[in-house]
Specification:
- The chain is α/β, with parallel strands linked by helices.
- It is 40% helix and 12% strand.
- It is built from eight helices and six strands; from the N terminus they run αββαββββαααααα.
- Strand 2, helix 2 and strand 3 form a beta-alpha-beta unit.
- Helix 1 packs across helix 4, helix 1 packs across helix 6 and helix 1 runs antiparallel to helix 8.
- It starts with a helix and ends in an 8-residue tail after the last helix.
C-alpha cells in the first residue's frame, strides 16, 4: 500500500511539473509575441523596417499648458516609478526650461493638439511623436494631451500611455486589456506587470537600438524566430522539448523518448494537431498554436 501511494505521489508531482512548464511556455510565447508587436513596429507606420528604438541618453521632460495639480503630481510619481522599476533605462527627470528638454508634454484643447505633436493624427485625445538618430536611438519626443474633453482619470491614463510609448513601446497591443498600451480605450491607472516586464526587456543590456526582432531574439537566447515567429523545422531547445512532452501527454507521441529538435516528423505532428483543433494548418508552432496546445481545451489524438 505504501509503495502504491509513493508511485501515485511521484506521478502527481510529475504531472504538476508538466502543467507548470506548459503554462510557462504558453505565457512566454505570448510575451514574446507582445514584445515584438509593441517594440518593433509603430502605430502609424514604420519607415525603418521593424527596428528597435530606445533612449541611450538621459530623458529630460518639460511639461506645460493647461495642467492641473493632479497632472503635475501624476507626472512626478510616474517619473519616480520609471527610475526605480526599469533597469537599464537612462535617468528620467523634469526641467522647468523647455529649451533644455528632449521630451515635451503639453496639455491643450483637442482642436490644438496638432500644434504640439508634429505627426498628430486627428481625433486622438493623447498622442506622441518621436525622432531617432542614425544609431536608431530615440533623441526627441513630443506628447500632446487633450485638456478640455478629458476627465482627470483619463488624463492620468493618457500621460502614462503616451510617455510609455515614447520610451520605445511604440505600438499598441490588441491583447491584455489591463495593459497601459492596450489598443482599446481604457482608463487604466497604472502599468500592469506585463508593461513593466516589456519596458525592462526593451532596456535589457543585451539589446541595442536598431536591432530587428530576429537579432534581438538571438541576443536574448530565444533562438531565431524565422520569418514570423514560432517553432518550425530547424528550431531546437527547451521550448521544442516542452512541446513534444505536451504532444506525448495528448497521445500524439507513442513514447516520451525524444530530443529537443524540430524535425520533419515534428512538423507532421504539428499539422495533425492543428487540423484536429481547427487551427490554420501550416506546421508552424506559433503563439496561437502553442496557447491551444497547453490549454485544457486541447483536443487529444
Amino acid at each position: 500500500m505504501k509503495k502504491s501511494f509513493a508511485v501515485i505521489l511521484v506521478v502527481m508531482i510529475m504531472l504538476s511539473g508538466f502543467s507548470v512548464a506548459a503554462a510557462q511556455t504558453a505565457e512566454e510565447a505570448h510575451f514574446r509575441e507582445v514584445f515584438q508587436a509593441a517594440a518593433f513596429s509603430t502605430e502609424y507606420g514604420d519607415s525603418e523596417g521593424g527596428k528597435l528604438h530606445r533612449w541611450s541618453s538621459p530623458i529630460v521632460i518639460w511639461a506645460g499648458g493647461e495642467m492641473t495639480r493632479e497632472d503635475e503630481e501624476g507626472l512626478d510619481l510616474f517619473i519616480g516609478q520609471l527610475n526605480t522599476r526599469v533597469g537599464g533605462l537612462p535617468p528620467v527627470y523634469r526641467t522647468g526650461f523647455r529649451e533644455e528638454a528632449n521630451v515635451t508634454v503639453v496639455y491643450a484643447p483637442l482642436e490644438r493638439l496638432n500644434e504640439h505633436s508634429k505627426f498628430y493624427v486627428e481625433g486622438n485625445w493623447g498622442f506622441f511623436s518621436f525622432w531617432w538618430n542614425a544609431l536608431q536611438e530615440i533623441s526627441r519626443a513630443e506628447i500632446a494631451i487633450a485638456s478640455d474633453v478629458t476627465s482627470q482619470e483619463e488624463r492620468n491614463h493618457l500621460l502614462m500611455e503616451e510617455l510609455t510609448g515614447s520610451l520605445g513601446l511604440t505600438n499598441d497591443i490588441d491583447s491584455d486589456p489591463d495593459s497601459i498600451i492596450h489598443q482599446g480605450w481604457t482608463t487604466t491607472q497604472e502599468l500592469s506587470d506585463l508593461d513593466w516586464r516589456l519596458l525592462n526587456q526593451l532596456y535589457d543590456d543585451r539589446l541595442a537600438p536598431g536591432m530587428t526582432f530576429e537579432k534581438a531574439s538571438l541576443a536574448l537566447g530565444w533562438g531565431n524566430p524565422s520569418s514570423n515567429n514560432g517553432l518550425r523545422v530547424g528550431s531546437s531547445g527547451q521550448e521544442v522539448l516542452n512541446m513534444k512532452q505536451r504532444f506525448y501527454e495528448l497521445g500524439y507521441f507513442r513514447t516520451n523518448q525524444f530530443n529537443n529538435r524540430f524535425t520533419d516528423n515534428t512538423e507532421e505532428t504539428v499539422r495533425l494537431f492543428e487540423k484536429n483543433n481547427g487551427l490554420p494548418v501550416d506546421g508552424v508552432a506559433d503563439a496561437q498554436m502553442l496557447s491551444v496546445l497547453f490549454s485544457d481545451d486541447a483536443v487529444k489524438k
